[in-house]
User: Which sequence fits this backbone?
């Protein structure tokens, strides 16, 4: 706007009112002798006559290229977005409602596009079943700062897998269930009844169910995991899960005893009687910290083998006699290995980088630390830090918003709050670099608490509590590689116990002393032996 020779005090302007169309208001000049030579206005927000038209523009901006999909065969869908109608356009696509597909990622986020800009992205998919399906794409758009949500539904056909895809007529629509050409397991497989006596079903997931069973050859109670359907996709999911898991042997990781694809695919695991999911929360921050410390111990071992979990959540942390054990390694990844894709993840526990690799980088060890931080938060507050039934809103919260501080929900969590918030930093660079670094802070807090409680228990003459806190200090020192602390607390146990157990603690203390003098590390076998001896000491004083 150019105004000449003016001394105006108020320069009023245009007004918008769009209930039934456009209305105008004349430009007025008050208390002025100004001469208006030229007016040039550029609106900050475009006007779209109806929401329907705006949604149609968004739909038209999105182009999707779908090749012929074949059951069980990897394919690539191509998405292109061209902004030819707005000053700025940003799209996020959600594919979570397509159960007939394995997808590379649930969400696809496009960068903000200026007018006339265009960008393309690809999505790797693998159809699970043959048939006709509705491919659903939920669209969340921001158009010139206006938020719009819509859904695009595309009818597609997935052909049965044969030597060569045929050109037969389209099959009628089928429900999203396993292909009828493959058997569906509705109960414990009859083929395994010669090996196991099924006792009860423990649970089921997207691909499999887990049974508590008695192994007939020795009466051992185990957990047996079997697929829901005997189809190739499920079989590959089974193999993918077991591929990394069988190489992990640690007290804080569920053991795999046996596995095979015949007579039906199955694997036999260590039976655990409970899980974190069943714990009534919130729990005492000290108990929660000890649980998280031991879960981090399992992660430390897996990470040392180059394996990350990527799907930590309460239902995947099992409990055996109170000891946490990490289970379900189906989404695990070998670091540095190409060709490993995440087909899904649990959004409530997902890290920012699982939603946007371009913004936050690839998943790594710190992704597991984020997910463990969510679990820690939930244990001490009884609440999730980010929660929404709307997947787009949930993704936005995780990527952009800070959670309510744990101490605002539970004042007792104040001392562990800095640890939790650092675990949940948006940028991986701001989180703990490793499980070892995390354990160091957890051990500092626990050490102070346990030493305080140990002193109090000794004053009270409560031998049961003395053994409990002394045992935790010994185990924590061993797991942290603190040989001087391990030697001290093992020696204390030798003085506290008697008979055969006393001799074993004296031997244990001698081993720690020798390793301290020789500069040797503590092997996993010695950690396990310490666990066993402490457990026996606790049984003696019950």
Assistant:
């Amino acid at each position: 706007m150019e105004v000449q020779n003016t001394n105006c005090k108020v320069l009023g302007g245009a007004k918008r009112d769009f209930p039934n169309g456009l209305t105008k208001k004349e430009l007025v000049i008050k208390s002025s002798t100004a001469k208006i030579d030229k007016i040039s206005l550029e609106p900050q927000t475009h006007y779209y006559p109806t929401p329907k038209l705006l949604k149609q523009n968004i739909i038209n901006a999105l182009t999707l290229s779908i090749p012929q999909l074949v059951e069980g065969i990897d394919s690539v869908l191509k998405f292109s977005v061209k902004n030819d109608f707005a000053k700025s356009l940003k799209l996020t696509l959600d594919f979570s409602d397509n159960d007939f597909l394995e997808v590379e990622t649930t969400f696809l986020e496009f960068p903000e596009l200026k007018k006339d800009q265009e960008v393309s992205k690809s999505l790797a998919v693998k159809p699970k079943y043959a048939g006709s399906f509705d491919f659903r794409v939920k669209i969340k758009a921001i158009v010139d700062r206006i938020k719009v949500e819509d859904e695009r539904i595309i009818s597609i056909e997935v052909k049965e897998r044969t030597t060569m895809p045929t050109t037969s007529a389209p099959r009628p629509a089928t429900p999203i269930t396993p292909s009828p050409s493959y058997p569906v397991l509705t109960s414990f497989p009859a083929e395994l009844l010669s090996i196991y006596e099924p006792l009860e079903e423990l649970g089921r997931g997207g691909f499999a169910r887990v049974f508590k069973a008695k192994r007939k050859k020795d009466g051992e109670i185990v957990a047996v995991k079997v697929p829901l359907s005997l189809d190739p996709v499920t079989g590959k999911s089974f193999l993918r899960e077991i591929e990394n898991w069988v190489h992990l042997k640690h007290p804080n990781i569920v053991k795999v005893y046996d596995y095979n694809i015949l007579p039906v695919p199955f694997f036999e695991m260590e039976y655990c009687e409970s899980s974190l999911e069943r714990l009534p929360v919130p729990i005492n921050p000290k108990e929660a910290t000890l649980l998280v410390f031991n879960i981090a111990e399992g992660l430390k071992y897996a990470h040392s083998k180059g394996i990350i979990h990527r799907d930590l959540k309460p239902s995947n942390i099992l409990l055996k006699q109170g000891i946490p054990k990490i289970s379900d390694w189906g989404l695990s990844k070998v670091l540095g290995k190409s060709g490993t894709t995440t087909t899904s993840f649990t959004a409530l526990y997902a890290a920012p980088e699982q939603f946007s690799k371009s913004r936050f980088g690839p998943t790594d060890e710190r992704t597991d630390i984020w997910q463990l931080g969510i679990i820690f938060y939930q244990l001490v507050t009884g609440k999730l830090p980010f929660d929404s039934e709307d997947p787009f809103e949930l993704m936005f919260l995780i990527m952009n918003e800070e959670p309510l501080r744990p101490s605002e929900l539970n004042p007792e969590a104040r001392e562990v709050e800095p640890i939790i918030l650092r675990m949940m930093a948006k940028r991986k660079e701001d989180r703990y670099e490793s499980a070892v670094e995390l354990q160091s802070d957890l051990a500092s807090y626990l050490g102070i608490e346990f030493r305080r409680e140990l002193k109090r228990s000794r004053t009270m003459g409560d031998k049961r509590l003395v053994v409990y806190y002394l045992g935790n200090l010994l185990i924590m020192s061993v797991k942290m590689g603190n040989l001087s602390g391990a030697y001290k607390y093992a020696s204390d146990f030798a003085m506290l116990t008697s008979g055969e157990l006393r001799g074993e603690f004296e031997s244990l203390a001698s081993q720690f002393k020798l390793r301290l003098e020789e500069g040797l590390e503590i092997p996993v076998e010695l950690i396990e032996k310490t666990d066993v001896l402490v457990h026996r000491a606790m049984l003696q004083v019950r």
